[in-house]
Amino acid sequence: MSPRGAGRGKDWSKLDESDVRVRPGRGTRPRTKRRPEHADAVTAMVVGKDRGRWTCSLEGDPEQIVVAMRARELGRTPVVVGDSVDLVGDTSGKPDTLARIVRVADRTSVLRRTADDTDPFERVVVANASQLLIVVALADPPPRTGFIDRALVAAYAGGLEPVLCLTKSDLAAPDEIITAYAELAMPILVTRQDKEPDDVAERLRDQVTALIGHSGVGKSTLVNKLVPDADRETGVVSAVGKGRHTSVTAVALPLPTGGWVVDTPGIRSFGLAHIEPDDIVAAFPEFVEAAEECPSGCGHLGTPEDPGCMLDTVVADGSATTGRLDSLRRLLSSRAGLDESQREQGVE
Ligand SMILES: Nc1nc2c(ncn2[C@@H]2O[C@H](COP(=O)(O)OP(=O)(O)OP(=O)(O)O)[C@@H](O)[C@H]2O)c(=O)[nH]1
Ligand SMILES: [Zn+2]
After folding, report:
1. Measured from the CA of 214, which atom of ligand 1 is nearest?
2. Looking at the record, which segments are called Disordered (predicted)?
């Protein structure tokens, strides 16, 4: 096990795209030693990406937008929306100027989209988001708990805090879904087109929040309310976001009250292939200790799949409710049923 490999302190760089090295290996030489000419580098957040050009916000200020290329020395190091980067060169942001990205900071969280026909690798599409807003309509289209469960797995394993947003509450009541997820202690917000989404705005304030949801659930309706001048603010990027090309992966839009919402129009399903059962158990602290006593390779599903699983003992001794264990196991099996669910997604 690597020095940082224990428990939750995941080293996301090790999980990155397998066709590139993100950073030089640890323990060889000082990793982030800057060249002298990079001493004047400025820090920025990547807010958009389009064919070899990254739109960056200096110091995370939405008024200071700079377009940058990736410095040659970075090779094919992935740089995605949400990444914190160091820029050199012309960082004035004036038309036709181009800065250079010379460094990508370690990521605090990752959201991956799945591999598909056009791309055999799971790619990180959003870095460093603190929250994942899972947008689901209460009707038209009807809610699908399988999608919510996979989103939860992606959030827990990627280091994002999940928030469920139930839209179109004018068409159906949210009670059933709220009950189904009550055990997770996840914030659940309910919205409808004819009301201002104040709860959502409050929850997103000063955070970087990735937003995910199926087509037609009301994401655009919600984003337009949260970011009234999205088109003006995003400039270069909004031109990209309008199409439905496969290159469109994510775009960060500045919230008027501070923070960013990252829309993910290109993501149809999540990359869950790298996720281990223990990554999900880690989001359920009361089960972590017992999981360590399980037979090696335990999937924690209980009998019949994992007969020696120790998680049941936590419920037996009263330290957790059956509902919590059921919720955890539902998420674990949503990961285990990955292939099936992806096939299901493919025909949509
Ligand atoms: N009844 C009702 N309809 C809504 C509500 N929110 C959005 N809609 C409608 O649902 C449809 C889809 O809304 P969009 O905001 O475009 O959904 P989207 O998730 O952005 O969909 P894509 O653009 O396909 O990704 C539109 O016709 C909206 O008018 C709501 O709260 N109630
Ligand atoms: Zn187990």
Report:
1. 19
2. 1-39
Count up the domains in the chain and report the number: 2
**Residue 62, preceding peptide bond in cis (omega within 30° of 0):** no
Query: What's the CA-to-centroid distance between 171 and ligand 1, angstroms?
Result: 12
State the ipTM, two decimals. 0.97
Which atom belonging to ligand 1 lies closest to the Cα atom of 221?
Answer: 15
- Are 255 and 319 in a shared domain? no
Residue with tokens 């990508």: 104
The domain of 296 spans 277-346
Count Cβ atoms below 10 Å from residue 312 Cβ, excluding itself: 16
Q: What is the DSSP letter of 286?
A: G
Mean pLDDT of 150-170: 94
- CA 306 to chain centroid, in Å, comes to 29
Residue where a domain terminates, one of 196, 231, 263: 263
Task: Kindly state whether residues 150 and 204 are assigned to the same domain.
Answer: yes
The ligand 1 site (C-beta within 6 Å) comprises 167-168, 170-171, 192-193, 213, 215-221
Residue 145 in domain? yes
Residues 208 and 230: their CA atoms lie apart, in Å, by: 16
pTM over 0.90: no
Angle at CA of residue 284, ends 279 and 287, nearest 5°: 95
